Amino acid sequence: MSTIIYTSPIFGPVKSRRLGVSLGINLLPGDGKVCTFDCLYCECGFNGDHRPCQKMPTRDEVRHALEERLRDMQVHGPAPDVLTFAGNGEPTAHPHFASIIDDTVQLRDRYFPRAKVSVLSNATQVHRPEVHAALMRVDNNIQKLDTIDPAYIRRIDRPVSDHYDVERIIGDLRRFDGHVIIQTMFLKGHDEQGSLDNTTEQYVAPWLEAVKSIRPEKVMIYTIDRETPYPYLEKATKAELDGICDRVIALGIDCSASY
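and the corresponding structure tokens:
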């Protein structure tokens, strides 16, 4: 099993299926994973297998590293399409997330004003007022919603808190008043409880109702692209993703599918 752990606050740029040329920003320790989910499909592996010894980078460390990399990219290229908060876990878990967002917006405006600031998040921290406010200041506020079935969430996303409540999460996502992009992983496979296929009507129909109620500016659906720590997962098919994408578009909401 291969896993990806980002050893510094700034990584890439990488070519993202959904975002283009993406310069990554990792707010978690460089020697392990810190996340409020423990997804079966996470490219960084399982939380318990990669417990960090290092601390999270400071606000000043992130700003300095980002500015150095942006200066270099101004001279040598490539120009980034996006500055993306991702990395070794949940970026909004950083205690100074909101201040780091402000720094990043300022540096983007100085060096690459056409680039977008994006955050990839699992939505577990969006109830915090300072996190919500910071996410309202980024261009692409991308929040995970793989399903609205609590049992399935416990099996595939595996939130570390016993208090995770998907209905509360949906309510929090509505509070962005449309300034949110919903990101959903569709996949197949099985565990000891049976099928993990969330492309079926049992999961897709209620998910569509939740998407309709959130009124996001866009929905991004995708499937497995890299090796997963749990080996019994499979890609959803192009036909399945296209079918789901068409149903989102029929609601009047922009949607893209990555295969």
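(Above: one complete record from the training split.) The first helix runs from residue 59 to 76.
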